[in-house]
Automatic annotation (TrEMBL):
Organism annotation: Sulfurospirillum tamanense
Main location: membrane
Annotated protein name in UniProt: Cation:proton antiporter
A Pfam family matched in the record: TrkA_N
Subcellular location per the Swiss-Prot or TrEMBL entry: Membrane
TM stretches of this protein: 27-46, 58-77, 83-106, 113-132, 147-169, 181-200, 220-247, 268-290, 296-315, 351-371
Domain of life: Bacteria
Keywords, alphabetical: Antiport, Ion transport, Membrane, Potassium, Potassium transport, Transmembrane, Transmembrane helix, Transport
Length: 536
């Protein structure tokens, strides 16, 4: 116990110190966590500690749950092309090419080559989604394309693990294994669907009625871990169960409170997960095979990027296809689990498994640096002719604030919303202001707020309120007319410059009007009277 505590304290201290240092150079915290794991592994000889890895896996579980909260079942159906067409083509083509390369270029036995090839086709859900969430790019077109392919990859882990079982099993027939998997999947989905549709709302209502925050959090933790355990008990990944549970809860009115309560757990466990990735670093293997490791990983990432670009270029413009391809070109965390299971079942030799694991770790280590420069790379290879990557896409959010305008007033509104942890997104038609907002990691999207399609994409109909903070009288009127045209009742808060502008907007029956000149005068007189009182 004492040795574990000392290792834990050293790891936390080192992670904090590294991340404080790296932040000065604008390097993502993920790098600090992985570096911490690598140092701890060398000092305490903890390479691939199994117990720590199992605990850390729940970082991905909570990440997938919170991603699931972003999706209702209707939303997933709406994304069916991104998930089931783009995702399937990417995994099938990439996995096939890598498998053939492993077999004919490196002379690896066919069964082993198939497992290796399709494991390399998987990308890093944990890193990509964390960076996209932090930057707000998850709501852009390329962010949604990336998410769709990543979701299919998570589903593809199931047949891949099944393949390992089939290749390792000498007595059980393939048809029996397939039948058992289909039955298990049906049972899991039915159970989660029944609980989500008929029991979840009633359960959460009773829990909320206790007026106990810790009981509410404990209930949510039970639901997340319970759904993950149920999926794992039937032979699927923990994260897939968590994602389905998130989708079920996304249908309830408690979605945003749950998301706010779970974010600290998610981020802490994700940090632990990235530390365990660092534990996989074996300096001896890296030194002995560094040419092979770096050479193969560059080839794998380039081939995967070219395949994804080719798939998306058919229906997307060049820039979005390129950004998506670059974002998910790496090899991911589920590949580590696949290689470890394949080694345990004697499908891959131990030394080869260690080289493959090092390839994955190096790939994941490079990913945050690549993701931070996606736009820079896209600017060089596919200059934007229009602000496509800044367009807001339908996010199915509710009870958020939509801010129209990111001028000085809009920036002040965003600052105050962020301080209160209120969900929001901004629509701005000036591309320079959009770029300013994105440089600050704000969810600022390009679009003309007087267009109904842009407002629909921002989920105005389900928003808590829309704040119009533009200074152009003509634009102000057009935006208000567009919002008042919605069938759903929208709470509209409008800033006007003076009495004349107020009269213009009042004719639209806007409920909440703030007269900037009047409010400024009140504030100035209040301050002046305070000065007078202090002087007397």
């Amino acid at each position: 116990m004492e040795s574990f505590l000392s290792i834990f304290l050293i790891a936390v201290a080192l992670a904090v110190a590294l991340n404080v240092l790296l932040k000065r150079f604008n390097i993502p915290t993920i790098i600090g966590y992985i570096a911490t794991g690598a140092v701890i592994a060398q000092v305490f000889d903890l390479h691939g500690n199994a117990d720590l890895t199992h605990v850390a896996e729940f970082g991905i579980v909570f990440l997938m749950f919170t991603i699931g909260l972003e999706f209702s079942i209707k939303h997933l159906i709406a994304m069916k092309k991104e998930v089931f067409v783009n995702g399937f083509l990417q995994v099938a083509i990439s996995g096939g090419i890598y498998s053939l390369g492993a077999q004919y270029v490196f002379g690896i036995e066919q069964k082993s080559a198939i497992i290796i090839g399709f494991a390399l086709a998987l990308s890093s859900t944990a890193i990509v989604l964390k960076v996209l969430n932090d930057s707000g790019d998850i709501h852009t077109t390329y962010g949604r394309k990336s998410l769709g392919i990543l979701l299919f990859q998570d589903i593809a882990v199931i047949p891949l693990l099944l393949m390992i079982t089939i290749f390792a099993a000498e007595t059980t027939s393939i048809s029996t294994l397939l039948q058992e998997t289909v039955v298990s999947a049906t049972i899991v989905l039915l159970l989660l669907f029944v609980v989500g549709k008929y029991l979840l709302n009633h359960l959460l209502l009773h829990v909320v009625a206790t007026d106990s925050e810790e009981t509410f959090v404990a209930t949510i933790l039970f639901l997340v871990i319970g759904a993950s355990y149920l999926a794992h008990a039937f032979g699927f990944t923990y994260s897939l169960g968590a994602f389905v549970a998130g989708m079920m809860i996304a249908e309830t009115k408690f979605k945003y409170q749950i998301e706010a309560d779970l974010i600290p757990f998610r981020d802490l466990l994700l940090g632990l997960f990235f530390i365990t990735v660092g534990l996989q670093v074996d300096v001896a293997v890296l030194a002995a095979y560094w040419e092979v490791i770096f050479g193969v990983i560059v080839a794998v990432m380039v081939i995967k990027a070219v395949i994804i670009f080719g798939i998306l270029r058919v229906v997307q413009n060049r820039r979005i296809a390129l950004q998506t391809a670059i974002s998910i070109s790496q090899v991911g965390e589920f590949s580590l689990a696949v290689f470890e299971l394949a080694r345990a079942n004697a499908i891959i030799p131990p030394q080869m498994a260690q080289v493959l694991i090092m390839m994955v770790v190096v790939s994941m280590l490079l990913t945050p640096l690549i993701l931070r420069h996606v736009r820079w790379i896209a600017d060089i290879l596919a200059p934007a002719t229009f602000a496509d990557e800044y367009r807001v896409v339908s996010s199915e959010v509710k009870n958020h604030i939509v801010v129209c305008g990111y001028g000085k007033l809009g920036q002040e509104i965003v600052y105050r919303l962020k301080k209160r942890s209120i969900p929001y997104l901004v629509i701005e038609h000036d591309i320079s202001l959009v770029q300013l907002g994105r440089a600050r990691n704000e969810p600022v999207f390009f679009g003309n707020a007087s267009h109904k399609s842009i407002l629909e994409a921002a989920s105005v109909g389900t928003s808590a309120a829309v704040i119009v903070a533009v200074h152009n009288e003509h634009k102000l009127r057009l935006i208000c007319e567009a919002i008042k045209g919605f069938k759903a009742s929208v709470n509209l808060v409008v800033r006007v410059a003076d009495f004349e502008e107020k009269k213009l907007i009042e004719s639209l029956e806007v409920g909440h009007i703030v007269n900037e000149g009047r409010e400024t005068a009140k504030a100035l007189i209040h301050e002046a009277l305070q000065c007078r009182m202090e002087k007397s």
